[in-house]
Design brief:
single chain; elongated; 21 helices; alpha/beta; 3 domains; 518 residues; 7-stranded mixed beta sheet; 19 strands; 38% helix; 8-stranded mixed beta sheet
Protein backbone atom coordinates (compact mmCIF):
# COMPACT_ATOMS: atom_id res chain seq x y z
CA UNK A 1 0.00 0.00 0.00
CA UNK A 2 1.43 3.38 -1.05
CA UNK A 3 2.07 6.33 1.29
CA UNK A 4 0.97 8.72 -1.47
CA UNK A 5 -1.88 10.23 0.63
CA UNK A 6 0.62 11.29 3.30
CA UNK A 7 2.95 12.71 0.67
CA UNK A 8 0.05 14.74 -0.68
CA UNK A 9 -0.75 15.98 2.83
CA UNK A 10 2.91 16.97 3.27
CA UNK A 11 2.75 18.99 0.06
CA UNK A 12 -0.54 20.57 1.21
CA UNK A 13 0.92 21.59 4.57
CA UNK A 14 3.99 23.06 2.92
CA UNK A 15 1.75 25.05 0.60
CA UNK A 16 -0.21 26.37 3.59
CA UNK A 17 3.04 27.46 5.23
CA UNK A 18 4.15 29.23 2.05
CA UNK A 19 0.96 31.32 2.16
CA UNK A 20 2.35 32.97 5.33
CA UNK A 21 -0.21 35.39 6.79
CA UNK A 22 -2.48 35.21 3.76
CA UNK A 23 -3.14 37.59 0.84
CA UNK A 24 -4.15 40.50 3.06
CA UNK A 25 -1.02 40.31 5.21
CA UNK A 26 1.21 39.93 2.15
CA UNK A 27 -0.42 42.91 0.44
CA UNK A 28 0.02 45.03 3.58
CA UNK A 29 3.72 44.12 3.61
CA UNK A 30 4.09 45.18 -0.02
CA UNK A 31 2.09 48.36 0.56
CA UNK A 32 4.60 49.29 3.26
CA UNK A 33 7.43 48.97 0.74
CA UNK A 34 8.74 45.70 2.17
CA UNK A 35 9.27 42.23 0.77
CA UNK A 36 7.88 39.14 2.47
CA UNK A 37 10.32 36.91 4.31
CA UNK A 38 10.25 34.29 1.56
CA UNK A 39 10.86 36.90 -1.13
CA UNK A 40 13.79 38.16 0.95
CA UNK A 41 15.37 34.75 1.24
CA UNK A 42 14.98 34.15 -2.50
CA UNK A 43 16.64 37.50 -3.22
CA UNK A 44 19.48 36.96 -0.75
CA UNK A 45 20.37 33.34 -1.51
CA UNK A 46 22.00 31.75 -4.53
CA UNK A 47 19.11 30.74 -6.86
CA UNK A 48 17.38 27.53 -5.84
CA UNK A 49 19.59 26.94 -2.80
CA UNK A 50 17.07 27.46 0.03
CA UNK A 51 16.42 24.33 2.08
CA UNK A 52 13.88 25.08 4.81
CA UNK A 53 13.81 23.38 8.17
CA UNK A 54 11.04 23.45 10.79
CA UNK A 55 8.73 24.48 7.97
CA UNK A 56 5.74 22.56 9.32
CA UNK A 57 5.69 24.32 12.73
CA UNK A 58 2.59 26.32 13.43
CA UNK A 59 -0.95 26.06 14.77
CA UNK A 60 -3.43 23.76 13.08
CA UNK A 61 -7.22 23.68 13.55
CA UNK A 62 -8.83 20.28 13.11
CA UNK A 63 -12.29 18.83 12.62
CA UNK A 64 -11.77 15.28 13.74
CA UNK A 65 -8.55 14.29 12.04
CA UNK A 66 -8.98 16.73 9.18
CA UNK A 67 -6.85 19.88 9.04
CA UNK A 68 -9.18 22.79 8.26
CA UNK A 69 -6.79 25.74 8.75
CA UNK A 70 -3.14 26.32 9.57
CA UNK A 71 -1.20 29.35 10.80
CA UNK A 72 2.56 28.90 10.37
CA UNK A 73 5.06 30.18 12.92
CA UNK A 74 6.01 33.83 12.48
CA UNK A 75 9.46 33.06 11.11
CA UNK A 76 11.15 31.13 8.31
CA UNK A 77 14.54 29.48 8.64
CA UNK A 78 16.79 27.17 6.71
CA UNK A 79 20.03 26.60 4.84
CA UNK A 80 20.98 28.66 1.81
CA UNK A 81 24.10 29.12 -0.23
CA UNK A 82 25.70 32.53 -0.58
CA UNK A 83 28.28 32.72 -3.36
CA UNK A 84 28.48 28.95 -3.15
CA UNK A 85 29.05 28.77 0.61
CA UNK A 86 26.49 27.34 3.03
CA UNK A 87 24.80 29.81 5.39
CA UNK A 88 21.87 29.54 7.79
CA UNK A 89 19.25 32.24 7.46
CA UNK A 90 16.27 33.07 9.65
CA UNK A 91 13.69 35.73 8.97
CA UNK A 92 10.75 37.18 10.84
CA UNK A 93 7.40 36.95 9.02
CA UNK A 94 5.67 40.26 9.69
CA UNK A 95 2.53 39.04 7.92
CA UNK A 96 1.86 36.77 10.93
CA UNK A 97 1.25 38.66 14.19
CA UNK A 98 3.77 41.31 13.18
CA UNK A 99 6.52 38.71 13.36
CA UNK A 100 6.00 38.37 17.14
CA UNK A 101 6.94 35.24 19.10
CA UNK A 102 4.79 32.21 19.65
CA UNK A 103 3.98 29.12 17.64
CA UNK A 104 6.33 26.69 19.39
CA UNK A 105 5.23 24.93 22.56
CA UNK A 106 8.66 23.67 23.62
CA UNK A 107 9.16 20.48 25.55
CA UNK A 108 10.44 17.10 24.47
CA UNK A 109 11.07 16.33 20.84
CA UNK A 110 11.84 19.87 19.70
CA UNK A 111 14.09 20.07 16.66
CA UNK A 112 17.01 22.54 16.96
CA UNK A 113 16.36 25.99 15.54
CA UNK A 114 18.57 28.16 13.37
CA UNK A 115 20.94 29.36 16.09
CA UNK A 116 21.69 25.90 17.47
CA UNK A 117 22.24 24.54 13.98
CA UNK A 118 24.59 27.37 13.02
CA UNK A 119 26.57 26.72 16.20
CA UNK A 120 26.78 22.97 15.72
CA UNK A 121 27.18 22.93 11.93
CA UNK A 122 29.72 25.80 12.09
CA UNK A 123 28.23 27.90 9.32
CA UNK A 124 27.55 31.66 9.17
CA UNK A 125 24.21 32.89 10.49
CA UNK A 126 22.15 35.72 8.97
CA UNK A 127 19.06 37.22 10.59
CA UNK A 128 16.50 39.01 8.41
CA UNK A 129 14.75 41.03 11.10
CA UNK A 130 11.21 42.30 10.69
CA UNK A 131 9.57 41.47 14.00
CA UNK A 132 7.78 43.19 16.86
CA UNK A 133 9.12 40.93 19.60
CA UNK A 134 6.78 39.71 22.34
CA UNK A 135 3.06 40.49 22.16
CA UNK A 136 0.40 40.65 24.88
CA UNK A 137 -1.81 38.75 22.45
CA UNK A 138 0.32 35.72 23.26
CA UNK A 139 -0.83 35.96 26.90
CA UNK A 140 -4.39 35.54 25.67
CA UNK A 141 -3.40 32.52 23.60
CA UNK A 142 -1.67 30.65 26.44
CA UNK A 143 -4.02 31.79 29.19
CA UNK A 144 -1.31 33.23 31.46
CA UNK A 145 1.68 35.50 31.62
CA UNK A 146 5.25 34.31 32.14
CA UNK A 147 8.50 35.33 33.76
CA UNK A 148 11.03 36.73 31.26
CA UNK A 149 13.64 33.99 30.82
CA UNK A 150 14.73 34.43 27.23
CA UNK A 151 18.41 33.95 28.09
CA UNK A 152 17.72 30.23 27.80
CA UNK A 153 17.81 30.96 24.07
CA UNK A 154 20.08 34.01 24.09
CA UNK A 155 22.97 32.08 25.60
CA UNK A 156 23.32 30.26 22.28
CA UNK A 157 23.20 33.60 20.43
CA UNK A 158 26.12 34.75 22.60
CA UNK A 159 28.06 31.52 22.05
CA UNK A 160 27.56 31.93 18.32
CA UNK A 161 29.61 35.14 18.29
CA UNK A 162 32.73 33.16 19.18
CA UNK A 163 32.18 30.53 16.51
CA UNK A 164 30.80 31.81 13.19
CA UNK A 165 30.11 35.10 11.39
CA UNK A 166 26.77 36.54 12.49
CA UNK A 167 24.98 39.28 10.52
CA UNK A 168 21.70 41.06 11.25
CA UNK A 169 19.64 42.95 8.69
CA UNK A 170 17.03 45.36 10.06
CA UNK A 171 14.35 45.32 7.36
CA UNK A 172 11.26 46.63 9.13
CA UNK A 173 10.12 47.79 12.56
CA UNK A 174 12.14 45.70 15.00
CA UNK A 175 11.39 45.80 18.72
CA UNK A 176 11.90 43.81 21.91
CA UNK A 177 14.32 40.87 21.86
CA UNK A 178 14.78 41.06 18.05
CA UNK A 179 16.09 44.62 18.57
CA UNK A 180 18.76 43.24 20.89
CA UNK A 181 19.44 40.42 18.44
CA UNK A 182 20.16 43.07 15.83
CA UNK A 183 23.23 43.90 17.91
CA UNK A 184 24.21 40.34 18.83
CA UNK A 185 26.14 40.27 15.58
CA UNK A 186 29.53 41.00 14.07
CA UNK A 187 27.91 43.32 11.51
CA UNK A 188 24.49 44.79 10.89
CA UNK A 189 22.73 46.86 8.25
CA UNK A 190 19.36 48.59 7.97
CA UNK A 191 17.20 49.82 5.11
CA UNK A 192 16.60 53.54 4.94
CA UNK A 193 12.98 54.66 5.32
CA UNK A 194 11.36 51.27 5.96
CA UNK A 195 13.40 49.99 8.93
CA UNK A 196 13.40 51.13 12.54
CA UNK A 197 14.92 49.72 15.73
CA UNK A 198 13.91 50.20 19.37
CA UNK A 199 13.21 48.18 22.54
CA UNK A 200 9.68 49.60 22.57
CA UNK A 201 7.87 51.49 19.82
CA UNK A 202 5.89 54.75 19.88
CA UNK A 203 2.89 53.30 21.82
CA UNK A 204 5.26 52.09 24.55
CA UNK A 205 7.01 55.46 24.64
CA UNK A 206 3.65 57.22 24.91
CA UNK A 207 2.58 54.99 27.80
CA UNK A 208 5.89 55.27 29.64
CA UNK A 209 6.97 58.86 29.00
CA UNK A 210 3.84 60.63 27.85
CA UNK A 211 4.99 62.01 24.51
CA UNK A 212 4.25 61.06 20.93
CA UNK A 213 6.93 60.26 18.41
CA UNK A 214 7.03 58.52 15.05
CA UNK A 215 8.81 55.23 14.46
CA UNK A 216 11.33 56.91 12.17
CA UNK A 217 12.09 59.68 14.67
CA UNK A 218 12.50 57.14 17.44
CA UNK A 219 14.66 54.51 15.78
CA UNK A 220 15.28 55.22 12.11
CA UNK A 221 18.50 55.40 10.15
CA UNK A 222 19.35 58.95 11.22
CA UNK A 223 19.37 57.82 14.84
CA UNK A 224 21.17 54.51 14.54
CA UNK A 225 23.55 54.89 11.58
CA UNK A 226 24.62 58.48 12.27
CA UNK A 227 24.14 59.17 15.98
CA UNK A 228 23.99 56.06 18.17
CA UNK A 229 26.20 53.79 16.07
CA UNK A 230 23.93 50.85 16.91
CA UNK A 231 23.70 49.95 13.21
CA UNK A 232 26.84 49.75 11.08
CA UNK A 233 25.80 50.31 7.48
CA UNK A 234 22.83 51.80 5.64
CA UNK A 235 21.19 50.48 2.48
CA UNK A 236 18.80 52.26 0.14
CA UNK A 237 16.84 49.06 -0.53
CA UNK A 238 16.52 45.49 0.67
CA UNK A 239 18.35 44.32 -2.44
CA UNK A 240 21.28 46.61 -1.60
CA UNK A 241 21.25 45.36 2.01
CA UNK A 242 21.63 41.78 0.81
CA UNK A 243 24.48 42.76 -1.52
CA UNK A 244 26.23 44.44 1.42
CA UNK A 245 25.85 41.32 3.57
CA UNK A 246 27.16 39.06 0.82
CA UNK A 247 30.21 41.26 0.44
CA UNK A 248 30.89 41.36 4.18
CA UNK A 249 30.72 37.57 4.44
CA UNK A 250 33.15 37.25 1.54
CA UNK A 251 36.03 38.51 3.71
CA UNK A 252 35.43 36.00 6.51
CA UNK A 253 35.84 32.26 6.97
CA UNK A 254 32.79 30.07 7.54
CA UNK A 255 33.85 29.65 11.15
CA UNK A 256 36.76 30.28 13.52
CA UNK A 257 38.25 26.85 12.77
CA UNK A 258 38.98 27.88 9.18
CA UNK A 259 41.18 30.47 7.50
CA UNK A 260 39.63 33.43 5.72
CA UNK A 261 39.36 32.88 1.95
CA UNK A 262 41.99 34.42 -0.27
CA UNK A 263 40.68 36.06 -3.44
CA UNK A 264 42.39 36.22 -6.79
CA UNK A 265 44.34 39.47 -7.02
CA UNK A 266 45.09 41.32 -10.25
CA UNK A 267 46.67 44.29 -8.44
CA UNK A 268 50.47 44.10 -8.39
CA UNK A 269 51.60 43.58 -4.76
CA UNK A 270 54.77 45.53 -5.61
CA UNK A 271 52.78 48.56 -6.82
CA UNK A 272 54.28 51.82 -5.53
CA UNK A 273 51.65 54.54 -5.40
CA UNK A 274 53.26 57.90 -6.28
CA UNK A 275 50.47 59.93 -4.61
CA UNK A 276 51.53 58.71 -1.16
CA UNK A 277 54.72 60.75 -1.36
CA UNK A 278 52.79 64.01 -1.00
CA UNK A 279 49.48 62.96 0.51
CA UNK A 280 50.36 64.26 4.00
CA UNK A 281 50.64 68.08 3.77
CA UNK A 282 53.69 69.80 5.24
CA UNK A 283 51.28 72.35 6.69
CA UNK A 284 49.81 70.25 9.51
CA UNK A 285 46.77 72.51 9.73
CA UNK A 286 45.61 71.18 6.38
CA UNK A 287 43.62 67.93 6.67
CA UNK A 288 43.67 65.07 4.19
CA UNK A 289 41.25 62.19 3.70
CA UNK A 290 42.19 58.81 5.16
CA UNK A 291 40.18 57.06 2.46
CA UNK A 292 42.69 58.24 -0.14
CA UNK A 293 45.50 56.54 1.74
CA UNK A 294 43.60 53.29 2.20
CA UNK A 295 42.51 53.09 -1.43
CA UNK A 296 46.07 53.76 -2.59
CA UNK A 297 47.50 50.88 -0.55
CA UNK A 298 44.99 48.00 -0.50
CA UNK A 299 43.99 45.91 -3.51
CA UNK A 300 42.07 48.18 -5.86
CA UNK A 301 38.34 48.18 -5.19
CA UNK A 302 38.62 45.89 -2.17
CA UNK A 303 37.92 48.30 0.69
CA UNK A 304 34.62 47.62 2.46
CA UNK A 305 33.90 50.32 5.01
CA UNK A 306 32.09 49.49 8.25
CA UNK A 307 30.05 52.21 10.01
CA UNK A 308 30.90 54.96 7.50
CA UNK A 309 28.52 57.53 9.04
CA UNK A 310 29.37 57.03 12.72
CA UNK A 311 32.50 58.28 14.52
CA UNK A 312 33.86 59.50 11.22
CA UNK A 313 37.13 60.57 12.85
CA UNK A 314 38.05 56.90 12.61
CA UNK A 315 37.68 54.84 9.44
CA UNK A 316 37.23 51.09 9.90
CA UNK A 317 36.58 48.27 7.48
CA UNK A 318 37.82 45.21 5.63
CA UNK A 319 40.03 45.02 2.57
CA UNK A 320 42.48 42.74 0.81
CA UNK A 321 46.24 42.86 0.33
CA UNK A 322 47.44 40.60 -2.49
CA UNK A 323 44.11 38.78 -2.13
CA UNK A 324 44.37 38.15 1.63
CA UNK A 325 41.53 39.62 3.74
CA UNK A 326 42.62 42.17 6.37
CA UNK A 327 41.03 44.54 8.84
CA UNK A 328 41.80 48.22 8.21
CA UNK A 329 41.55 51.24 10.49
CA UNK A 330 42.73 54.80 10.07
CA UNK A 331 42.58 58.14 11.82
CA UNK A 332 40.71 60.53 9.55
CA UNK A 333 42.01 64.12 9.94
CA UNK A 334 39.04 65.49 7.98
CA UNK A 335 36.78 64.86 11.01
CA UNK A 336 37.75 66.19 14.44
CA UNK A 337 41.35 66.17 13.29
CA UNK A 338 41.35 62.38 13.57
CA UNK A 339 41.19 62.57 17.36
CA UNK A 340 39.95 59.47 19.18
CA UNK A 341 36.78 60.13 21.18
CA UNK A 342 34.56 57.64 23.01
CA UNK A 343 32.62 56.68 19.88
CA UNK A 344 35.76 56.19 17.78
CA UNK A 345 37.31 54.07 20.50
CA UNK A 346 34.29 51.75 20.58
CA UNK A 347 34.38 51.49 16.80
CA UNK A 348 38.05 50.49 16.84
CA UNK A 349 37.56 47.90 19.59
CA UNK A 350 34.86 46.16 17.56
CA UNK A 351 37.19 45.93 14.56
CA UNK A 352 40.01 44.53 16.70
CA UNK A 353 37.66 41.90 18.10
CA UNK A 354 36.43 41.02 14.61
CA UNK A 355 39.99 40.51 13.36
CA UNK A 356 40.96 38.43 16.38
CA UNK A 357 37.83 36.29 16.18
CA UNK A 358 38.21 35.43 12.49
CA UNK A 359 42.00 35.46 12.19
CA UNK A 360 42.51 38.52 10.00
CA UNK A 361 45.66 40.67 10.14
CA UNK A 362 45.02 44.24 11.27
CA UNK A 363 46.45 47.17 9.32
CA UNK A 364 46.38 50.60 10.97
CA UNK A 365 47.08 53.90 9.26
CA UNK A 366 47.88 56.19 12.17
CA UNK A 367 47.74 59.97 12.40
CA UNK A 368 46.74 60.10 16.05
CA UNK A 369 46.60 63.48 17.82
CA UNK A 370 45.42 61.78 21.02
CA UNK A 371 42.22 61.29 22.99
CA UNK A 372 39.56 63.96 22.67
CA UNK A 373 39.85 66.63 25.35
CA UNK A 374 37.30 69.07 26.71
CA UNK A 375 34.23 69.15 28.92
CA UNK A 376 31.95 67.13 26.61
CA UNK A 377 34.56 64.40 26.30
CA UNK A 378 34.83 64.25 30.10
CA UNK A 379 31.06 63.92 30.41
CA UNK A 380 31.16 60.92 28.09
CA UNK A 381 33.87 59.21 30.14
CA UNK A 382 36.89 59.44 27.88
CA UNK A 383 39.21 57.95 30.52
CA UNK A 384 37.20 54.74 30.89
CA UNK A 385 36.87 54.54 27.10
CA UNK A 386 40.65 54.94 26.85
CA UNK A 387 41.18 52.17 29.38
CA UNK A 388 38.96 49.84 27.33
CA UNK A 389 40.99 50.62 24.21
CA UNK A 390 44.26 49.92 26.04
CA UNK A 391 42.88 46.59 27.25
CA UNK A 392 41.62 45.62 23.78
CA UNK A 393 44.99 46.48 22.23
CA UNK A 394 46.95 44.44 24.78
CA UNK A 395 44.57 41.46 24.69
CA UNK A 396 44.59 41.21 20.90
CA UNK A 397 46.79 38.59 19.24
CA UNK A 398 46.22 38.84 15.45
CA UNK A 399 49.24 39.97 13.39
CA UNK A 400 49.17 43.76 13.37
CA UNK A 401 51.00 46.36 11.32
CA UNK A 402 50.82 50.09 11.99
CA UNK A 403 51.86 52.72 9.47
CA UNK A 404 52.50 56.07 11.19
CA UNK A 405 51.69 58.74 8.62
CA UNK A 406 51.63 61.82 10.84
CA UNK A 407 51.01 62.33 14.53
CA UNK A 408 51.23 59.69 17.26
CA UNK A 409 50.67 61.21 20.67
CA UNK A 410 49.76 60.13 24.16
CA UNK A 411 47.88 57.05 25.32
CA UNK A 412 45.78 57.06 22.15
CA UNK A 413 49.04 56.80 20.20
CA UNK A 414 50.10 54.02 22.53
CA UNK A 415 47.00 52.11 21.38
CA UNK A 416 48.47 51.95 17.89
CA UNK A 417 51.12 49.57 19.22
CA UNK A 418 51.29 46.13 20.78
CA UNK A 419 54.40 44.85 22.58
CA UNK A 420 53.67 41.14 22.09
CA UNK A 421 52.92 38.82 19.21
CA UNK A 422 53.53 39.54 15.54
CA UNK A 423 53.63 43.33 15.32
CA UNK A 424 55.33 45.66 12.85
CA UNK A 425 55.46 49.44 12.81
CA UNK A 426 56.55 51.52 9.84
CA UNK A 427 56.79 55.33 9.93
CA UNK A 428 56.77 57.86 7.16
CA UNK A 429 59.17 60.84 7.22
CA UNK A 430 56.08 62.99 7.88
CA UNK A 431 55.61 61.35 11.30
CA UNK A 432 55.80 63.21 14.62
CA UNK A 433 55.24 61.73 18.07
CA UNK A 434 55.68 61.99 21.79
CA UNK A 435 53.84 61.81 25.11
CA UNK A 436 52.02 64.99 24.12
CA UNK A 437 52.05 67.76 21.53
CA UNK A 438 54.99 70.13 21.77
CA UNK A 439 52.74 73.12 21.16
CA UNK A 440 50.48 72.36 24.10
CA UNK A 441 53.10 70.82 26.34
CA UNK A 442 55.63 73.67 26.38
CA UNK A 443 53.29 76.04 28.22
CA UNK A 444 52.86 73.47 30.99
CA UNK A 445 56.37 72.03 31.22
CA UNK A 446 58.20 75.39 30.96
CA UNK A 447 55.59 77.61 32.62
CA UNK A 448 57.90 79.24 35.19
CA UNK A 449 60.73 79.76 32.70
CA UNK A 450 58.33 81.40 30.24
CA UNK A 451 56.64 83.59 32.87
CA UNK A 452 60.01 84.89 34.16
CA UNK A 453 61.36 85.74 30.71
CA UNK A 454 61.48 89.42 29.58
CA UNK A 455 59.43 88.45 26.53
CA UNK A 456 57.33 85.36 27.52
CA UNK A 457 55.90 84.84 24.04
CA UNK A 458 59.32 84.91 22.40
CA UNK A 459 60.65 82.54 25.03
CA UNK A 460 57.80 80.09 24.45
CA UNK A 461 58.39 80.22 20.68
CA UNK A 462 62.11 79.62 21.12
CA UNK A 463 61.55 76.56 23.30
CA UNK A 464 59.02 75.17 20.85
CA UNK A 465 61.43 75.68 17.94
CA UNK A 466 64.21 73.91 19.85
CA UNK A 467 62.00 70.92 20.59
CA UNK A 468 60.59 70.77 17.06
CA UNK A 469 64.13 70.59 15.72
CA UNK A 470 64.77 67.35 17.60
CA UNK A 471 61.38 65.82 16.71
CA UNK A 472 62.63 64.35 13.44
CA UNK A 473 61.75 60.66 12.96
CA UNK A 474 65.37 60.07 11.97
CA UNK A 475 66.52 60.98 15.48
CA UNK A 476 64.08 58.41 16.86
CA UNK A 477 65.43 55.84 14.42
CA UNK A 478 69.00 56.54 15.58
CA UNK A 479 68.06 55.54 19.12
CA UNK A 480 65.40 52.84 18.60
CA UNK A 481 65.91 51.23 15.20
CA UNK A 482 62.43 52.34 14.13
CA UNK A 483 61.75 51.58 10.45
CA UNK A 484 61.41 54.83 8.50
CA UNK A 485 60.14 54.09 4.99
CA UNK A 486 59.40 55.79 1.71
CA UNK A 487 55.58 56.09 1.71
CA UNK A 488 55.53 54.59 -1.79
CA UNK A 489 56.87 51.33 -0.32
CA UNK A 490 53.86 50.94 1.96
CA UNK A 491 51.86 48.54 -0.21
CA UNK A 492 54.76 46.20 -1.03
CA UNK A 493 55.80 46.03 2.62
CA UNK A 494 52.27 45.40 3.86
CA UNK A 495 51.65 42.72 1.24
CA UNK A 496 54.80 40.98 2.43
CA UNK A 497 53.72 41.36 6.09
CA UNK A 498 50.29 39.84 5.42
CA UNK A 499 51.83 36.90 3.55
CA UNK A 500 54.24 36.32 6.43
CA UNK A 501 51.30 36.47 8.84
CA UNK A 502 49.53 33.45 7.40
CA UNK A 503 51.44 30.78 9.39
CA UNK A 504 50.82 32.77 12.58
CA UNK A 505 47.13 32.98 11.79
CA UNK A 506 46.95 29.25 11.11
CA UNK A 507 48.43 28.64 14.56
CA UNK A 508 45.60 30.71 16.09
CA UNK A 509 42.77 28.71 14.49
CA UNK A 510 39.84 28.16 16.84
CA UNK A 511 37.94 30.42 19.25
CA UNK A 512 39.72 33.53 20.47
CA UNK A 513 40.59 33.52 24.19
CA UNK A 514 38.90 36.92 24.42
CA UNK A 515 35.12 36.74 23.77
CA UNK A 516 33.59 39.01 21.15
CA UNK A 517 31.50 41.78 22.75
CA UNK A 518 29.40 43.86 20.32
Amino acid sequence: MSWQPEIEELAHRRELARRMGGPEGIQRQHDNGKLTVRERIDLFADPGSFSEFMGLVGHGVYEGNDLVSFTPKASVEGFVKVDGRKVIVSGGDFTIRGGSGGGRDGGLGQEPGAVRRALEWRVPYVRLLDAAGGSVRHFDEIGRTYLPDGNGWSTFEVDLLRAVPVVSAVLGSVAGLPAVNACLAHFNVMVEGTAQLFPGGPPVVKAALGYEISKEELGGAQIHCYESGVVDNLAKSEEEAFAIIRRFLGYLPANVWEMAPRAQCEDDPARREESLLSIVPRDRRRPYGAHRVIEAVVDRGSFFEIAPFYARNRVTGLARLNGYPVGVMANNPVHLGGTTDVAAGEKVIRLMQLCDTFHLPLISFADEPGFMVGLESEKRGIERAGARLVIASCESRMPWATVVMGQLFGVAGQCQHRPTGMFQRYVWPSGRWGSMHIEGGVSAAYRREIENAPDPEAKRAAIEARLQAIASPFRTAEATGQEVIDPRDTRPLLCEFVADAQPILRSQIGPSPVPYHP
